[in-house]
Amino acid sequence: MAETLRVARLFFVLLVLVTTGRWLMGTFGVPYEKGHHIFSIVILTTFACLFYGAFTRRWLDYRLIQAVLLGVVMGLASQILILVLTALSYALGLDTYFNHPTALNAPEALSFGKAMGVRLTGLIGNSIGAGITTALGWALGGLLPRQ
User: Fold this and answer.
1) Where are the chain's structural domains?
2) pTM as predicted
3) How far is CA 12 from CA 45, 48, 118, 140, 146, in A?
């Protein structure tokens, strides 16, 4: 696990930067419709999984299961951060991009309990999805040249 966390350091730095940007845009009142796509944690995680899957296969000789584990760890980290910031948004009574109805796939504002249910579903589903995306990246990694 230590090796997985070491390899993912760049992702974690980018995750903090994107999350900070997303939090600030929401708290400074940039309308969700105008700014949600600028700092997207899910898009960051998706591209990171694809690239990490490919590069770790070709240049670190990762087996498929190692790459998938790395992707699941990155997906879990992203989703835990989203879940925590959603809870924090509700606890502080703030309107952020984390508790916006569109971000929660809802037509109107959700209660804290329902929002946490949505986020827990995302934690499971998106973490699995990150592993699958990393497997796809790993498969594409065969196209990269050797060092």
Assistant:
1) 2-143
2) 0.89
3) 10, 10, 23, 23, 26
